[in-house]
Amino acid sequence: MIKTIILFTLLIGLSACDASDEFKVVKLNKAVFTGSQNDPLSQACQNWKLDFKDVKAAFILSKPIDSSVLHYQFYQLPCEITGEAVLKGKPIGFTLNAGSYFIIEGNNKNSYYSGCSTNQCKRFFLMSPESTGVSK
Asked: Which residues have CB under 8 Å from 19's CB, separation 6+?
């Protein structure tokens, strides 16, 4: 439970400070599409490429969200990039969904969500979230 609180506190703390030295991407995989190959999103997913700098920028712009905000305001697309990072000295795994959000997994295997909903985020993702209360 303490690890859960610490990781969530780290995520919230990023929104209040300069996180440029607090988050470092150490591994980044290619985008994977899990939907139907007939889906027009398939090609867009294959073309979706982010580098370490892009992922870091998107993460810094993102804000912690809870699961209800994730499910009601963000599109859960069948296109994701996975990777590994270090957040405030702690290793984490992450999944970056093309629908503008991160799923962050700490050592305790709990998942946390962080959504990227500002206009600056649009260049990193295939779809932006619904504008129903998430700060722009």
From this structure: 59, 60
Which sign does the torsion angle of CA 123, 128, 131, 136 carry? negative
Query: For 33-79, how does the pLDDT look when each residue is reduced to its tens digit (9 = 90+)?
Result: 999 989 989 999 999 999 999 999 999 999 999 999 999 999 999 99
Q: In this structure, what DSSP letter does residue 106 have?
A: -
Which tokens in the block code for residue 112? 């946390």
Q: Are 114 and 135 in contact (CB under 8 A)?
A: no
Mean pLDDT, rounded, for 80-86: 96
3-state secondary structure (DSSP) of residue 79? strand
Residue 28 in tokens: 């980044």
Q: Give CB contacts under 8 A, 24+ apart, made by 109-113.
A: 110/3, 110/4, 110/7, 112/7, 112/8, 112/11, 112/64, 113/64, 113/65, 113/66, 113/67, 113/69, 113/70
